[in-house]
Write a structure and sequence with these properties.
Length: 101
């Protein structure tokens, strides 16, 4: 049976391994090409999302289900309900209601 190493032993093993070219590895990971999302619509985003940013959160499954059911009952979208909720929050804090669905 193989004996388990301690964390410090494992780190020493990794630290002493020769690397082919550590500078090239760092440079390769530093420059990552992402899709362009230009204001003029020339990027990869659909026109309805150009100039907009995703705002999200992680909630229980029941919250997600209830929000979708509410949107269906009111014949609207989750996005419209979230915009309404954001505007209610802004108003409660004395800020302009600027969220649009």
């Amino acid at each position: 049976m193989k004996q388990k190493r301690s964390l410090s032993e494992a780190l020493q093993v990794v630290a002493t391994r020769p690397q082919a070219n550590p500078t090239a590895t760092r440079q390769a990971t530093r420059h990552v090409e992402l899709p362009v999302d230009n204001q003029d619509g020339s990027g990869s985003a659909p026109p309805s999302r150009v100039g907009k940013r995703l705002i999200g959160g992680h909630f229980n499954r029941a919250v997600s289900r209830q929000l979708r059911e509410l949107a269906a009952r009111e014949e609207t979208t989750v996005q419209a309900l979230l915009a309404q909720a954001m505007n209610m929050l802004f108003a409660a804090r004395g800020l302009p209601e600027i969220a649009e669905p």
